[in-house]
Amino acid sequence: MGASIGWQKSSFSGPDDNPDCLELAAAAHSILIRESDEPRTILTAPAAGVRALLRSVKRGALGT
């Protein structure tokens, strides 16, 4: 995994030179997740699970 993956940076991360951001990339039936300051550490999660998490976050269902 690496150069050919289309990483998308979180819109909450600020300018491009900000090292504190979360990046996501789509893969077959899964989502790849990494922190920009640790690009070699990549987590893989089922796409359906990530969608459910994001819906919950947007609804505010996870508490404060």
Which key features would you list for this structure?
64 residues, alpha+beta, globular, 1 helix, 4-stranded antiparallel sheet
Structure description:
With 64 residues, this protein is an alpha+beta fold. The protein has one domain. The protein has one helix and four strands; from the N terminus they run ββββα. The relative contact order is 0.17. The mean pLDDT is 84.
Provide a concise account of the structure shown.
The chain has one helix at 47-59, and strands at residues 8-9, 22-27, 30-35, 43-46.
Topology:
Elements: E1 8-9, E2 22-27, E3 30-35, E4 43-46, H1 47-59
Antiparallel strand pairs: 1-2, 2-3, 3-4
Q: What letter string, H or E per element, gives the SSE order? A: EEEEH
Beta strand count: 4
Q: Give the count of helical stretches.
A: 1
* Rg calc: 13 Å
Number of structural domains: 1
Category from helices, strands and their pairing: alpha+beta
Shape: globular
Largest sheet: 4 strands, antiparallel
| Proportion of beta-strand residues | 25-35%
* Arrangement of strands in the largest sheet: 1-2-3-4
Q: What is the helix fraction of residues, given as a range?
A: 10-25%
Mean pLDDT: 84
Q: Report the uncertain regions.
A: none
N-to-C span: 35 Å
